[in-house]
Every structure is written in C-alpha cells, then in structure tokens.
Design a protein that fits this description.
mainly alpha; Caveolin; transmembrane transporter binding; isopeptide bond; 114 residues; transmembrane; elongated; cell membrane
C-alpha cells in the first residue's frame, strides 16, 4: 500500500502555504506514519500472524478432510443417478422426438415473390 504525503494532503493550484510549514508537515506526516506502522507491527504483527495461520490451517483442514471427500462421494453417487436418468430419457423421450422429427421432415416450404 503506497500512501504518500502528496496523496493525502494536496494544496490546489494557486493556494500554497509557507515552505517551512509544508516541509514540517511533510516530515511530521512521514515520520509519524513510519513509527506508527512499526509500533503497530511490533504489537499486533505476531498475534495476527498466529490468528491468520490458524484460520488458514482450519480452512485447509476442512477442505482436505470434509469438502473434497463430500464432493467425490457426490460425484460417485450422481453417476448412478445419471445412468438411470439417461435410461429413462432414451426409453421415453427418444421415440417421441424421433416421431416428431419424422412428422416435421415431411414439411415443405416454398417461397414465392409476387
């Protein structure tokens, strides 16, 4: 994350403060940002690293031991259902659609311009 002084505090064209105020503000902003980040990193960095490590370990554990086996089990069971569904479609729908196709195949269309 790149946050610079000019991105946060920008004076519009034609409106400028004293150079000493601008330089002091820049130094104060930069130093306080630097040390606040270092202090927060020192205080919260390790606990948050442990928290995120635990969270991603938990997600990995659930994915490996619960999600993937459930999906594989579902895919195995759905194959059986798919075969039964395919058998029903071929038994009942194929003859119907074949008969409709033969009926519609005898339709002839002729276009005339008048």
């Amino acid at each position: 994350l790149q946050v610079d002084f000019e991105d946060v505090i920008a004076e519009p064209v034609g409106t400028y403060s004293f150079d000493s105020v601008w330089k002091t503000s820049y130094t104060t902003f930069t130093v306080s940002k630097y040390w606040c980040y270092r202090l927060l990193s020192a205080i919260l960095g390790i606990p948050l690293a442990v928290l995120w490590g635990f969270l991603f370990a938990l997600i990995s554990f659930c994915h490996i031991w619960a999600v993937v086996p459930c999906i594989k089990s579902y895919l195995i069971e759905i194959q059986c259902v798919g075969r039964i569904y395919s058998l029903c479609i071929h038994t009942f729908c194929d003859p119907l659609f074949e008969a409709l196709a033969r009926i519609c195949s005898n339709i002839k269309v002729s276009l005339r311009k008048e």
